[in-house]
Amino acid sequence: MPLLRRLGRSITRLGAAGAGQRCKLANQVAVAVGMVAWCEALSHARAGGLDPAAVQQVIAGGAAGSWAMTTLAPRALAGDFAPGFLVKHLVKDIAIALETARETGIDLPGLETAARLYEAVVTRGWQDEGTQALARLYPGW
Question: First-to-last CA distance in the chain?
């Protein structure tokens, strides 16, 4: 544990070998579905005549706020799709999460939607951009 304490701020014991991988997949499920959520929220605001940057600030400070809403949404609004985490890596993680979901008998319809949308991002050739490139699928980006 001393080595782990030097590598990270938060160390949580999750269980047997493999539990950390499952937790990472759970995180990626939340990331993928959350990315869809903020893209759609800001697109909805823009279509209603609101300034999406102002709406982003409101949402980021409220119950739907997240690291992605605070960090990636402003970058997307500025047309910055440079990678922090590559689309192609998230697509790989989504595929693994969907596979493990099937193996355990659960349906993840939100993740299935995110998978289809991120596949559309890849189809357009944006696989080497940051995950915020998802926003480019929506009108006005």
Answer: 45
Q: Is the pLDDT of residue 141 over 90?
A: no
Tokens 């949308």: give the residue: 117
Closest CA to 47 of 37, 36, 39: 39
3-state secondary structure of 96: helix
Domains of the chain, with CATH numbers?
A: 19-137 (1.10.1040.10)
Average pLDDT over residues 68-97: 98
Phi, psi of 33 (to 5 degrees): -70, -35
User: What distances in angstroms separate CA 88 from CA 5, 92, 103, 115, 128, one per listed residue?
Assistant: 30, 6, 23, 11, 6
Out of 5, 24, 44, 102, pick the active-site residue.
24
Classify residue 42 by burial, with Cβ atoms within 10 Å: 0-12, 13-18, 19+.
buried
Give the model's pLDDT for residue 46. Answer: 97
Active site residue 92: no
